[in-house]
Amino acid sequence: MKPPLSFITLLAYDYRYAFEAIASYYAIADEIILGLDQDRLTWARQPFEIDLNAVRAFVGRIDTAGKIRLIEGNFHSHDHPMENDTRERNALSMQCAAGNWIVQIDADEMLLNADEFMTWMEAAGDKLAGAVIMARWVNVFKQFGDKALVITPGNEGGPIATRMAGQYVNARWTRERQVASPLNLLHFSWGRTPEELRQKLRNWGHARDFDTEAFYRRWEGLNLENYDQWRNFHPLDGPLWQGLSVWRIVRTVRRP
Question: What percent of the chain clears pLDDT 90, i.e. is strictly above it?
């Protein structure tokens, strides 16, 4: 039996990335909640702009089954960005249908194998009770046209699904036992234009956790000729990112 899935995606300065994220999971979602700060402030309390006409146009094209809702609220009331990150996820999870799996997919993440994930969820059934479901990231670190430098090996992942509404303690983390799923997420965490990346580094949940400006300057010098010199370079846990490899990335949805 197909488990009911409530998807949540947060909209902010990188809202255009969300178009690909939503398209990648729309078919398996029962409902989709888009979160947006009512004052257009980031978790770090910096102003951002969003073209709601572009968002509405995208929703009008894709939402043939009427699954999508936009919920606005104050998601910047705490002093630390990570506290605001967690608060927004908790608030939106409380808006999901009771009993549904709550699947948090960030704007810069695309499901690479949504059907396989859904089949796995169906087969696992009650074995997933009391668990938070984990996914694997395919992390795009920098893009050059249709080529991208991707973190290799892909050892990194994170929690994406729980049935415990309002129980997030740190971003998407809960205190439940962890169960690995086969889900792979193409993650454009750093694979952005220089302007987009600087904006993210100033405003995401880890904005105060390391010297983002110094790391950005190093990122600027990375190219397809010197990438093999990058070893053990994760800004918070060096060996987590052991190296880089070249991939070809094909866009599935145009970001207007």
Answer: 86
